[in-house]
Design a protein that fits this description.
Keywords: Metal-binding, Zinc, Zinc-finger. InterPro entries: Znf_SWIM. This is SWIM zinc finger family protein. The chain has about 450 residues and is an alpha+beta fold. The chain folds into 4 domains: about 5-95 and about 100-165, no CATH class; about 185-295, DNA Polymerase III, Chain A, domain 2 (Roll), CATH 3.10.150; about 300-375, Winged helix-like DNA-binding domain superfamily/Winged helix DNA-binding domain (Arc Repressor Mutant, subunit A, Orthogonal Bundle), CATH 1.10.10.10; about 380-455, no CATH class. The chain is about 25% helix and about 30% strand. The protein contains 12 helices and 25 strands. It has a 10-stranded antiparallel β-sheet, with helices on both faces. Strand 7 (about 80-85) and strand 8 (about 90-95) form a beta hairpin. Helix 6 packs across helix 8 (about 340-350), helix 7 packs across helix 8 (about 340-350) and helix 10 crosses helix 12. The chain starts with a strand and ends in a 9-residue tail after the last helix.
């Protein structure tokens, strides 16, 4: 696994402090991007939380996922959550160390006691003493939240900088992108009342015993959700139900549970999203299709990365992003002069650099800026790299709807069938397109669309 190390420098540790007038939660920020450019310690919010103990539990749930590995649990994760200010809300995001669970807490305008937030994205320090303090909040006494330093000018910060060395595997970045692509294809499948939601979620196993049983499915009924032995229309895949354990933090405060998933296709396991609705907040967990396989290998972004058109379109669309909490492709298409299809491809490409996410409740994209090199996901995506090498080496021969790709000492046939490229390789035989195109189909796509490939070939 390709890894790099990023230094997250905080002015001081985040802390929960008490005084005679109430408690104050100070979340310290590391370097991030704002409309003013890069800042060492951006400040996004200073105001009161409408529901302090619910917000505390929601933040702990996001931190739980950031510190967890639901597969190969002997290894620990250590990625601090990401926070984005979108003007009318704060979004706290994290990914599990195994890359199989994406978590996001949206603290909406009504949860921020009427205060507006600044715009930008950064990491926030969630340390063990802070976690202990947050877990002890049991009443809704006034709680002041500060995201960022007490003083706006970084030069006024005194004392030593607290620095964390955080390993950032490339698969985590690809996971953020793939989770966004998967979510954009979800529909609302069920909405449960608070009582039904609590009963269902508390009935799920907390151990790992079910992880090896394969995909499990649930379907909406008049009274909630029930298991089904096969993926009937409208069913939602629940792969590794123990991975929803972080939702237990907020169950007592839930007002509803929304379940999202894609249309059932051939009975194959699929990703799904589980959104707990809270007063002024939403906590969402998105699960990869297999507990033993993270989002990073799903291949949903490869088509968008394989063409120069998407790269140019993404550059144009990125200029129009303005830290908006909801981004509509149709509106971007009108402003950019591109088709809606090309805008969606551009947003997918921007997602590979962590620049957009997808909000299921709003059915819209949102703008954020993760601290990643924009080309990093593309450089380290094995199938994409291999496809560029094949195309650049002249390994692709076109003959109408049929193409031939020489790879090693074998030659593979790639054929267009109903808008999908099929291949005679083992990858296609194993997955039938369910994990994105194989490297041979990607190479054919590059050559047909004239994408720039390795060695400058076209």
């Amino acid at each position: 696994m390709t890894r790099s190390v990023q230094a997250l420098a905080y002015a001081r540790p985040s802390a929960l402090e008490s005084s005679q007038v109430g408690a104050s939660l100070g979340l310290e920020t590391a370097g991030g991007l704002t409309p003013r450019g890069a800042e060492a310690h951006p400040r996004f919010f200073a105001g009161f939380l409408s529901s302090p103990r619910i917000a505390a539990r929601g933040l702990l749930a996001v931190a739980d996922v950031a510190a967890a590995r639901y597969y190969q649990r002997t290894l620990r994760a250590s990625l601090d959550p990401v926070v984005t200010g979108n003007g009318d809300r704060l979004r706290f995001e994290s990914f599990s160390g195994c890359c199989g669970v994406y978590a996001r807490l949206d603290v909406l305008q009504e949860g921020l006691d009427g205060q507006r937030t600044e715009h930008g994205t950064t990491n926030v320090d969630v340390n063990n003493p802070l976690r202990d303090a947050l877990s002890r909040i049991t009443a809704d006494d006034p709680l002041h939240l500060r995201v960022g330093p007490e003083e706006l000018a970084v030069t006024t910060l005194d004392g030593p900088v607290v620095e964390k060395k955080v390993p950032l595997p490339d698969r985590w970045l690809r996971g953020f992108a793939e989770a966004q692509v998967a979510s954009a294809g979800f529909d609302l499948r069920a909405e449960l009342t608070a009582a039904r939601a609590v009963a269902f979620l508390r009935s799920l196993p907390r151990g790992t015993g079910n992880a090896a049983r394969g995909a499990q499915w649930v379907v909406a009924t008049g009274s909630g959700l029930r298991p089904t032995t096969r993926p009937v229309p409208g069913a939602v895949c629940l792969p590794g139900p123990e991975r929803l354990v972080a939702l237990q933090r907020v169950l007592r405060h839930a007002t509803a549970l929304r379940v999202y998933g894609p249309p059932v296709a051939d009975g194959a396991a699929a990703a799904s999203a589980w959104e707990v609705v809270l007063p002024g907040m939403r906590l969402t967990l998105t699960l990869s299709p297999d507990p033993s396989r993270g989002f990073s290998g799903e291949g949903g972004v490869l088509e968008a990365l394989a063409t120069d058109d998407a790269a140019a379109d993404a550059e144009l669309v990125s200029v129009l992003l303005a830290w908006e909490p909801t981004i509509e492709p149709a509106s971007l298409a009108e402003r950019s002069g591109l088709s809606v299809e090309r805008v969606r491809a551009a947003l997918t490409r921007l997602g590979t650099a962590g620049r957009v996410g997808y909000d299921l409740a709003d059915a819209a994209y949102f703008h954020r800026e993760l601290p990643y090199d924009a080309d990093r996901a593309e450089r380290h995506n094995p199938r994409l790299v291999a496809a560029r090498e094949l195309a650049g080496a002249g390994a692709v021969s076109l003959d109408g709807a049929l193409a031939s790709v020489a790879s090693g000492d074998r030659r593979y046939q790639v054929r267009e069938n109903g808008g999908t490229l099929t291949c005679t390789c083992q990858w296609w035989a194993d997955y039938r397109g369910k994990r994105g195109p194989c490297k041979h189909a990607l190479a054919v796509t590059m050559v047909r669309r004239g994408a720039t490939v390795a060695g400058g070939a076209r």
